[in-house]
Predict the 3D structure of the following.
Amino acid sequence: MVWAFAVFAMVALSEVPLLKGKSAREVLEEQGLWEEYKVKYPYNPMGKFERSAVGKVPMFNNADMTYYGVIFIGTPPQSFKVLFDTGSSILWVPSVYCTTPICNIHNKFNPDLSSTYRNNGSIFSIPYTTEGVGGFLGYDTVTVGGLTVVNQMFGLSEAETPNMMHVVFDGILGLAYPGLALSGATPVFDNMMSQGLVRQDLFAVYLSSKSQQGSVVTFGGVDPIHYYEPITWIPVTRELYWQIAVDSVTINGQVVACSGGCQAIVDTGTSFITGPEKSMNNINSCVGSRVLRGDYVVSCHKISQMPDVTFHIQGQEFTLPASAYVLQSQYGCRAAFFRGDDSLWILGDVFIQQYYSIFDRAHNMVGFAKARKST
């Protein structure tokens, strides 16, 4: 289904610039610690999607997350770098009460310095392998891209997993549905809608693939400077995550995965594309990658010869060239197709870099349009 999309005056939109900093993996590789780290904290791309007891929202290990933006909490405002995550629904940041040394390298919220802060009285816990992030819940004013949300519930961490030592951002701002939220907390975007702060009940994400700057989250509308028409609209199949139906995955016209259809989550909080082991092995075999110490490595000199991978969604083709799905660094090249869950795929940043993604709560749809390349 392809719809024309009415764009309101840009003054009605609120945009949060995203920076693409070094990933935790890059930092660890520079320090010679990556091999030890990935054994201790194995990658579990589906971890945060597993439902658990009330008051707990699983988190996951993704050392390649690099996109973050700045928000403000409290009066006067205290600033924090956060990961905008469409795969979770809670907002949390470190607090001055955090007792683990990891918090000392991040910005910490001090409720005593905010005249609008109110304590909630509840605790929160986010499991993370054998350790996690935990603390208590409170309410305060949160400003995102010039939009001021009042009485926003958020988590203030008192303890954090050692994994947080290697990430650039301080905390996470979840943009999934309320059903995934922690302890009944209303997600930030839901409060934006209910408080009448956005012109349209949608937000959009543009991720630059190369430049450290240029990426942006737009609340309340879309920014045509970042995409080419048309926009293809796909219904959400489960109003918990941004979950959609995929028809198939092909290479050179042949179905290599998702035969007969599959379900996928569009997730800004995951760097890669993940899916069932058999499907990932088949795709990696077809593109010419091989397993080496847990990575699907490819020859950096053969990227131009590698085939496109095409996702068929809602009758439309969404193609990823090798230049998009091969991650290049000074330490080599690897394909961005990783084993995940046997029932759900994740279309992460590798996909979103190629396709401007619109998350429409008014109609419960996800829109994709070809992204304009940043210069």
Residues 1-12, 22-31, 33-64 have pLDDT under 50 and may be disordered. Residues 277-287 form the longest helix (11 residues). The radius of gyration is 20 Å. The CA atoms of residues 158 and 343 lie 35 Å apart.
